[in-house]
UniProtKB/TrEMBL annotation:
GO molecular function, one term: transmembrane transporter activity
Cited PANTHER family: OLIGOPEPTIDE TRANSPORTER-RELATED (PTHR11654)
Organism of origin: Gossypium mustelinum
Membrane-crossing residue ranges in chain numbering: 63-86, 93-115, 135-155, 184-203, 209-230, 363-382, 403-420, 440-461, 473-491
Entry protein name: Major facilitator superfamily (MFS) profile domain-containing protein
Family, similarity comment: Belongs to the major facilitator superfamily. Proton-dependent oligopeptide transporter (POT/PTR) (TC 2.A.17) family.
Keywords of this entry: Membrane, Transmembrane, Transmembrane helix
Region described as Disordered: 1-22
Length: 569
């Protein structure tokens, strides 16, 4: 499709085999079906991977946390590469197709590890004298996880965007249809997530890992088939370049010209974009050092040597948002800790109800979702609607307030987890058992608080990135969010390794306890995590929060100037 166009007629990028007008709901029905099966497949594996590695690969705590965090972090980081390749070379359709095939291959390998016992170490009975997995067994496992991470990198940045491509947003009807698509997309995502976290996780834990892995693998295969069948109905847009490259160009051009004296320089500023006072060193990227840098039409001959003021200001705006994103990384670390260490606690807790029903440890992942859903519905229905009814104007919590509540929830999550863990471990040692007699339900508060961290801090930071960046940089907002998630996973892994190596010195037992949490002092790790969150709270309020107001002001001025320029034209 021609750059900047959303026309549905005479487009060389559209499938010529279709006699009907492509796009719209005719295409989206395939995309939503594909998305539902794909999410059902991926979340069915992600949700219970900690339990699988612990029970079937005999992984001790530190190795398990490292594997899960590095896999999760790499999956998020790969999204940046997927977005770049999609925007510059393949386009969204092919990126989604290749990403899905990569994920399918990875799932097939993981399913194979469940089917063939020799691909795993012998089952550890009673967690005594557990045999660790061999290098070749781990290599096969890592190959499967790597293919899934590559696949996630291709799917995540393109799935919503490809659906949005199917609507003509230049019309009121198209914009209305797009809004409806987002609602159905989130509905399908939630539906798949609930099925994955309940039925599939139950089958994996209590019936058979082979069946439990075969189900998501089959779902992904069905997802790919549906996606390919719908090819004739899609609007497939050509790659149009990436805004990421523009940001890199600014850094490259500013570095080349860092010795220039800009006191009397002229700038390349075709859009008459306002210049901010921050990071003036980057403006050298827009300095016209020599008229030979421009062609006959007054445009740069080499975009890596000369950029526009608008490109420079976009990079400035993005860099100005980094302090807030750093505060978000601390919150995301708390969320990651519950999906790994929290699940390890659940594995060593009493999961049998008085009725005899066994609660799968992976079901603990439902608690954050439920807490998030309860808060959002309470906030939107009771608070926002009631304040609007009473005052005539909807009163919402500010972005700063929500992030602060998220930071406090993160601290509370770690503190509550430390108290619960001490109680769980004490009961286990008293009874001399691997599993504590303490009910798994006692872990619900810490998982619920993890959900509140996401409801307040994560949602607010995503909103901050999306609303404060120009519309042309919306893909960058998603990329920065994924990078923040990735960094949180990597930093969490680093923290676990540092704590493990430090606390086991002198022949002592690591706080993380190796194969058995009862041998360690996990509550001390949670105290440390709470201390880090307290420092993060101080960092945000003493330094980072000012950048929320700054970026809002800059973005507002930028939009006002843009409207003035449009009026002048």
């Amino acid at each position: 499709m021609a750059e900047g166009s959303n026309s549905f007629l005479d487009d060389p990028c559209l499938s010529p085999s279709s006699k009907k007008q492509p796009g719209g709901w005719r295409a989206v029905k395939y995309i939503l079906a594909n998305e539902t099966f794909e999410k059902l497949a991926s979340m069915s594996l992600i949700a219970n991977m900690t339990v699988y590695l612990k029970t079937k690969y005999n992984m001790e705590g530190v190795l398990l946390v490292n594997v899960i965090n590095i896999w999760s972090g790499t999956s998020s980081f790969m999204s940046i590469g997927g977005a770049l390749i999609s925007d510059m070379f393949l386009g969204r359709y092919l990126m989604l197709l290749y990403g899905s095939i990569s994920s399918l291959l990875g799932m097939m390998i993981l399913t194979l590890t469940a089917i063939v016992p020799k691909l795993r170490p012998p089952t550890c009975i009673g967690q005594i004298n557990c045999i660790d997995p061999n290098l070749w067994q781990l290599s096969i496992l890592y190959a499967g996880l790597t293919l899934m991470a590559i696949g996630a990198g291709g799917i995540r940045p393109c799935n919503i965007a490809f659906g949005a491509d199917q609507f003509n947003t230049t019309t009121k009807e198209g914009r209305s249809q797009l809004e409806s698509f987002f609602n159905w997309w989130y509905f399908s995502f939630t539906f798949a997530l609930v099925i994955a976290l309940t039925a599939v996780v139950y089958i994996q834990t209590n019936i058979s890992w082979v069946i439990g892995f075969a189900i998501p693998t089959s779902c992904l295969l069905v997802s790919i088939v549906i996606f390919v069948i719908g090819h004739h109905a899609y609007i497939i847009m050509k790659p149009q370049g990436s805004v990421f490259v523009d940001l890199v160009k600014v850094i490259a051009a500013a570095t080349r010209k860092h010795r220039l004296d800009c006191s009397r320089c002229s700038f390349y500023d075709p859009d008459f974009h306002p210049r901010t006072k921050q990071l003036r060193c980057l403006e050298k990227a827009a300095v016209i050092a020599n008229q030979n840098e421009l062609d006959e039409d007054g445009k740069p001959k080499n975009g890596w040597r000369l950029c526009s003021i608008q490109q420079v200001e976009n990079l400035k705006l993005l860099l100005g948002m980094m302090p807030v994103c750093l505060a978000g990384i601390g919150c995301f670390m708390t969320m990651d800790q519950q999906t790994t260490i929290g699940i390890l606690q659940a594995i060593q807790s009493n999961n049998v109800l008085p009725s005899g029903f066994k609660i799968p440890p992976g079901w603990m992942g439902l608690s954050p979702m439920i807490a998030l859903s309860i808060w959002i519905s309470t906030y939107e229905i009771l608070w926002v609607l009631q304040t609007k009814r009473l005052t005539g104007k909807a009163k919402r919590l500010t972005m700063t307030q929500r992030i602060n509540i998220g930071l406090i929830s993160a601290m509370a999550c770690s503190i509550v987890a430390s108290f619960i863990e001490k109680k769980r471990r004490t009961a286990a040692l008293k009874h001399g058992s691997f599993k504590s007699p303490m009910s798994i339900l006692m872990l619900l508060p810490q998982f619920a608080l993890s959900g509140l961290v996401e409801a307040f801090a994560a949602v607010a930071i995503m909103e901050y990135l999306t609303t404060q960046l120009p519309e042309s940089m919306r893909t960058v907002a998603g990329a920065i969010f994924f990078i923040s998630l990735s960094m949180a996973s990597y930093l969490n892994s680093m923290l676990v390794n540092i704590v493990h190596k430090t606390t086991k010195k002198g022949g002592k037992t690591s706080w993380l306890g190796g194969h058995n949490l009862n041998n360690g002092k996990l509550e001390n790790f949670y105290y440390l995590a709470a201390s880090i969150e307290a420092l993060n709270f101080l960092y945000f309020n003493l330094y980072a929060r000012r950048f929320i107001a700054t970026s809002c002001t800059i973005n507002k001025e930028s939009k006002e100037d843009q409207h003035i320029n449009e009026d002048q034209i």
